Amino acid sequence: MAPVTTVGEEMHALVERLYPLCRSITGDGVRATLDIVGEYVPLQAHEVPTGTQVLDWTVPQEWNIRDAYIADSAGHRIVDFAASSLHVLGYSVPVSATMPLAELRAHLHTLPDRPSWVPYRTSYYQPEWGFCLAQETLDAMPDGEYEVRIDSTLADGHLTYAEHVVPGQVPDEVIVSCHVCHPSLANDNLAGIAVATFLARALAEQTPYYTYRFLFAPGTIGAITWLARNAERVDRVKHGLVLACAGDRGQLTYKQSRRGDAEIDRVVRHVLAASERPHHVTEFTPYGYDERQFCSPGFNLGVGSLTRTPYAGYPEYHTSADNPDFVSPEAMADTLAVCREAFAVLDRNRRYVNLSPYGEPQLGRRGLYDALGGRSDTKQAQMAMLWVLNLSDGEHSLLDVAERSGLPFDTVAVAADALHGAGLIKA
Amino acid sequence: MAPVTTVGEEMHALVERLYPLCRSITGDGVRATLDIVGEYVPLQAHEVPTGTQVLDWTVPQEWNIRDAYIADSAGHRIVDFAASSLHVLGYSVPVSATMPLAELRAHLHTLPDRPSWVPYRTSYYQPEWGFCLAQETLDAMPDGEYEVRIDSTLADGHLTYAEHVVPGQVPDEVIVSCHVCHPSLANDNLAGIAVATFLARALAEQTPYYTYRFLFAPGTIGAITWLARNAERVDRVKHGLVLACAGDRGQLTYKQSRRGDAEIDRVVRHVLAASERPHHVTEFTPYGYDERQFCSPGFNLGVGSLTRTPYAGYPEYHTSADNPDFVSPEAMADTLAVCREAFAVLDRNRRYVNLSPYGEPQLGRRGLYDALGGRSDTKQAQMAMLWVLNLSDGEHSLLDVAERSGLPFDTVAVAADALHGAGLIKA
Amino acid sequence: MAPVTTVGEEMHALVERLYPLCRSITGDGVRATLDIVGEYVPLQAHEVPTGTQVLDWTVPQEWNIRDAYIADSAGHRIVDFAASSLHVLGYSVPVSATMPLAELRAHLHTLPDRPSWVPYRTSYYQPEWGFCLAQETLDAMPDGEYEVRIDSTLADGHLTYAEHVVPGQVPDEVIVSCHVCHPSLANDNLAGIAVATFLARALAEQTPYYTYRFLFAPGTIGAITWLARNAERVDRVKHGLVLACAGDRGQLTYKQSRRGDAEIDRVVRHVLAASERPHHVTEFTPYGYDERQFCSPGFNLGVGSLTRTPYAGYPEYHTSADNPDFVSPEAMADTLAVCREAFAVLDRNRRYVNLSPYGEPQLGRRGLYDALGGRSDTKQAQMAMLWVLNLSDGEHSLLDVAERSGLPFDTVAVAADALHGAGLIKA
């Protein structure tokens, strides 16, 4: 096997490591996941006790599972949790019984249209037990008695989530959130975890302008718990991105925040368009991942969601076919690259005020103007300066300047730095 | 003849009953019309004396006519008011004379391009007499002396209009207005009267949210009179619809209010689009029917106009060809159906406030969430609840929710009812 | 030669008279230019001393030139300022020397891609000397010694600009600006001067509503000087137009003000569209002519720019090929006509308030309504009155009325005059 060399391969290796763990909205699978992520970036873990009131919700009992199977009368395990964490209905109550197939059927979940795939099912808030299996497996099960056993516990415990913070120059925050509650599903949680992890590492290499807060939490109840515990300081969150389905081979899809014109929306749209990648931009809908919570009307944060093929948009979604083969190093690297490009724009996107707003300032005597004209890169730099000066009225950001002028954001930002250095504009 | 069974046929029968009457902006023809309408829905009639100042206008003298004809030298009636109320220039002063054709011609109105049709002409505010006749009739009249007689009176009297009110849960009003001043013209006044009448009957079957006020009044001076006499309470009028040309076989046309984005505009546009009927939506113009008065800049009410082929948009307009055959039961029934659909939306179009706006409320423990997912109608109902919760910030109406979500208005309204019942939103 | 008869021919004759003069941002060439323009319209000249601080800039030394040439060893003048003012680098410092071609080359400017054309180059704010010549001329120059001589002076003096004012009924101003700093370039300055001159003459034939101020000034430093000296009264400038490249055979291009929706923007767009001329409308950019200064963020005036082919948009730009043959009488006449049409709209574009806003006023008793209907021009006039009445709520201008109604601006303005005369609207 070739050595792991690219960041895409590193992320894929992380996906493969995390894949076998049985995650859920609580329990040791989440803790084991966070322990592994913590080897890449330091994490602060939080344990929130069962019964804690979080917004309109209550932290549920903690679920843990050690073993589960269906065995035939010969004691042969036909369905075995040890083979895949998907085989057990998430949050199954314990069971230990023998029953005929006819009775067992009510507890079995299959995908008749995809007979070789195992579906992913949960029952978080209604006590229930069940197994998920391939239709083929079910078809091959003769009538007769079966032993069913789920060695799980539902007991008071904790809900676990973790944060990683990259400190910035200002306390204003950008949150990056991914869910860590799905068991053996690669695209629909592990790829997002991997991209978030390596994005955090990349941001830590410099001191960014914003403080970037990464949130690794179970879906829905985890985001709600975080919001409940951070209600006093949530107004620090100026921008955010929910990462999910980050590794399949489809085009990137940016789902805008509820506000639709939040700065993160404009930045990601700009970066995707400027990069000339094929991509989709969609309106906000109150369905999908934790943007549902961040964009609930009381918070209404500027949080969008970046995926490749979106939520529930591919046949492998929530099935055993969403395995490590379904995600590629290249796709994860591409998702990571767009995140980095977007944050590079977001982080430098200031609103300046022209301190010499009456007429153009004389750039020439400040050494900012090419006397006899000439080279095209100099020309573009000068145009960028004129645009920044003209639009720096406190209302236009550098992104506005880039979009109005058609110049690359980077050229505009460099021009702004030069003008700022010459004392012609102030932030 | 088959029994009258459908509402379209009932409306057409009303058109046929009203057709022979000689209506004008005042006089007994209007009273007779309102008497007949009053057999269908109770009306409150108003009589406003000649000379009453109404806004910038003055109620004119009342015009009544008993007989009118042109007879040839043999005493044969060539043009006879008894055959059609169109034959007399509306508001003709009386005349009784004998004169040569050459002199008579100045008082004769024809349609040379439609030689068999009789035009409709009036001269309300300038004393004048005249006859309208087919060009063919005129062409067949030999030179010579003719007896002309118009047995009309112009005298102090009253302007007549009537109202029908369907009381609602709130005093805020929706007005539905139609003109009752055209003589024997079926599409251009009688079809609108018929649709308004049966719309009033349909609304009375329940207690609507809004109070619906139906106005049967002569065009222009009638609407102006109503506005003048209701100036103190016109701010109760929140929405309105002027009905005209409601029975021809053309597509429906909705002419927006002067405001263009009034709630009635959005509602009718939505209903027409959602119904997938071919239709037109046009901008407001200060011409046409009484939307001119309701949408004058001082009132600027949210009143649109619903027609089939619009004002002056068909060759039969203001001619004897606009007779009962020109309007169909099916077209009138279709116009009525759209009015009912539009008012069904308007009447339920509330703005709610989410009482649990921080994160999503837990629908499951309130029995509003299908635990294991599943049926598509349940799914749509849940999506509608999530949309209503997400957009109920006091700024978005249920129509906004329907349009943003792409869900049927009815599904959204049912979801809002469920959430309201659970105490999660308030109006 | 045929007598000068059309205004286009008159303008072209002015271009030809001005063509040989060596203009720059200061100096006697500007004064001679303004003297000639002053024969057409009275000008008030302003002389601003060297060293005067104007906004962020300082008025430079005055440059004058008497002679300049490159002569070969035989004393033959190979490049001669007497033949074209373009041959000397604008603002060249004096030089008198003999040097080998190898050393001279660093001071020679050519257009290798257009070997027969002479480029136009300047070095205003860096002391430099140089010659501009055809590449063909350079190619024919043998190695050897050359005599170079530029008999110029750079000395304290003045910057010169001039104004012409057409007094209006109100002190609110429209400025029309053109640059007068380019030497022998016909489209890129002389055509604009000619159109401005004849536009001023045309406006002076009546007393317009606005006061029209024509500014003949050197580019950049001239506009900046004018703005600096008029800072206290610049808020009188409500609208403006920068004229340049006014004579080439390309389509008209209107470059919008920085505000994009200034009244001048709407007016010129309307006039160009209504005229059905092929044309372009472009967004503001902080590059081009003196709209850069008028539209700097501190002033942000409603000043657009009208050109034919825009700034730097044609190969002849800033070369000897931009000569009087490059501009045509017809094109200049067309530019002038559009300016006159635009100002005819701008000058009459009032916002009125309907004094009878509740319902329609009764036009008939005021003699404003055709009793029996009829002719199409009467019909259009009546429609225009209804539109003006309906939209005269203090928010809509007559241009808004024209655009909403689709009626010609002139018809709308005439209707407004009639309604104003009848006391139905006030300004």
TrEMBL record, chains A, B, C:
Transmembrane segments: none
Domain DUF2172: from-to ranges: 62-153
Essential cofactor(s): Zn(2+)
GO molecular function, one term: metal ion binding
Keyword Metal-binding set for record: yes
Annotated binding of Zn(2+), by residue: H182, D188, H318
Domain UCP01524 winged helix-turn-helix: 351-426
Entry-linked InterPro entries: DUF2172, DUF4910, UCP015244, UCP01524_HTH, WH-like_DNA-bd_sf
Keyword entries, A-Z: Metal-binding, Zinc
Limits of the DUF4910 domain: 12-349
UniProt xrefs under Gene3D superfamilies: 3.50.30.90, Winged helix-like DNA-binding domain superfamily/Winged helix DNA-binding domain, Zn peptidases
UniProt remark on cofactor binding: Binds 1 zinc ion per subunit.
Protein name: DUF4910 domain-containing protein
Organism: Streptomyces botrytidirepellens
